[in-house]
Amino acid sequence: MSTVFDTIMSKINEIRPLTHAYLQILECIDSLPDTLYYTGKLPSERLPTVAIVGTRKPTAYGREVTQQLAGELAQRGVVIVSGLALGIDALAHQAALDVGGRTIAVQANGLHRIYPNTNRRLAEAILARDGAILSQYEPGLEPMQYRFLERNRIVSGLADAVIVIEAGLRSGTLSTAAHALAQGKDVFAVPGNITSPMSAGCNQLLRQGAMPVTSVDDILECLSISSGTHPVQQVLPLGTTPLEQAIIDALARGVRDGDAILATLHVPPDEFNTALTMLEINGAITALGANQWTLR
């Protein structure tokens, strides 16, 4: 049975990038394709744009930082670009959508299919929220390893700045950073735990001169967007029970580990787990994995 998503995906547009106001920035990339393919809606004018990239297997820290940075940037009207891959890419797209922002996914295959298929629902949401899915490859071409590396230069080329959240030393994510530097783009890296393999790539970028990210203001300054124009203020959710509120208060203090929170509350584990479940269902908190939690 055909779906609305299938109908949208069947409407693949061809465009010459240098004829479009938003895409003209791609003149900085190597081997600029004569034609790009897209479905959905591209911005009609050039808007501040940030690429957020990283590992397919983020830690709880990486998940939290991605959700925070992508969400706060999207709230300020910044377009979030990434590659629709598992992990950091998907988290960045979703965080932008969660705050009503706009996001663009760049695929390493023709738009006859979404890759990976597990992110099909995310792709549907991107198109439903006036975003776009873009590729340099004509329909019918399948994802190949070298095409992911080629794709990365378009991810960085579309952006005014690139943020690397988490990456191993041999991560393909680092090729996006290398393309960005060659294109004259600002590259930011999130400092990480020196014992974490997932932070090794970011820490190496920092040693090589990438700019550290400690808050969204670091990026806004680079984009010449005033951090005081539309202040982002976190409004704490209210729990429906004293236990739920105690959990919210602990998360607001920076405690992320479920066991650590439980140890301070002196309640039975089953009651605690029920409260966590209700808070997650109500959208007050988000699971980061490995029993780590954060406020939505």
Number of strands: 11
Radius of gyration: 20 Å
**What is the C-level CATH assignment of the largest domain?**
Alpha Beta
Overall, the morphology is globular
pLDDT average, as an integer? 90
Uncertain residue segments:
229-234
Largest sheet: 9 strands, mixed
Number of helices: 11
Distance between the termini: 35 Å
**Structural class by SSE content:** alpha/beta
* Helicity level: 25-40%
What is the spatial order of strands in the main beta sheet? 1-2-6-5-4-3-7-8-9
Describe the protein's architecture and organization:
The chain has 296 residues and is α/β, with parallel strands linked by helices. It folds into 2 domains: 4-222, Rossmann fold (3-Layer(aba) Sandwich); 242-295, Arc Repressor Mutant, subunit A (Orthogonal Bundle), CATH 1.10.10. The chain is 39% helix and 15% strand. The protein contains 11 helices and 11 strands. The strands form 2 sheets. It has a 9-stranded mixed beta sheet with strand order 1-2-6-5-4-3-7-8-9, with helices on both faces. Helix 2 runs parallel beside helix 3 and helix 5 packs across helix 6 (173-182). The longest helix has 16 residues, at 60-75. The two termini are 35 Å apart. The model is unreliable at 229-234 (pLDDT under 50).
At a glance:
With 296 residues, the chain is of the alpha/beta class. The chain has helices at 4-10, 60-75, 88-98, 120-128, 145-158, 173-182, 200-207, 216-222, 242-252, 258-265, 269-281; strands spanning 13-15, 36-40, 49-53, 79-82, 103-106, 132-135, 161-164, 186-189, 211-212, 285-289, 292-295.
